[in-house]
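User: Can you model how zinc ion sits in this protein?
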Amino acid sequence: MTIRTILEYPDPRLNLPSQPVTRFDADLNSLVDDLLETLYSTSAIALSAPQIDDRSAVLVIDLSEDRSTPKVYINPQILAKSTWGFVEESCLSVPDIVGNVIRATEVRAQWQDREGRVIEDDLSGMDAVCLQHEMDHLAGKLFIDRLSIFRRLSIRARQAARSRSLRKSA
Ligand code: ZN
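Assistant: Here's the modeled complex, given as structure tokens:
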């Protein structure tokens, strides 16, 4: 298991779509292990493969206090959404930004586990919201893409100022 580097906005690799997983093998298992180890090296609750520069449709979520309940979603699909609401989100790939996004708080989803078994279940609350946030990553989207144009422009300006000051201090 390896802690991998997390790509940060505006890295263009975050905009590339993922490909479905077709081989449930040792490579997939080591990707899942790396995702979990990288997630657990942060205070975040979810992480997707594109964020560690891998194009596989894989994401992990662990909402437990003691980081003991990893959930692994491979080739996830959302079959139905209901009960929409505003959710305050942040993202390891967009440091220091928090924004309100409209999400379904109840979803019916289908995915595969590490062995390739197909699972279908209802998810609600944070499970549903995290799944949608991470599935956006698989589609090459970030949560800030769902904010208003004004908020996006201010984030872009802030990011540009940030990289200018990083260059100055380097
Ligand atoms: Zn994210």
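A couple of observations from the model: Residues 91-93, 133, 137 surround zinc ion (CB under 6 Å). Residues 10 and 160 are 10 Å apart (CA to CA).
User: Helpful, thanks.
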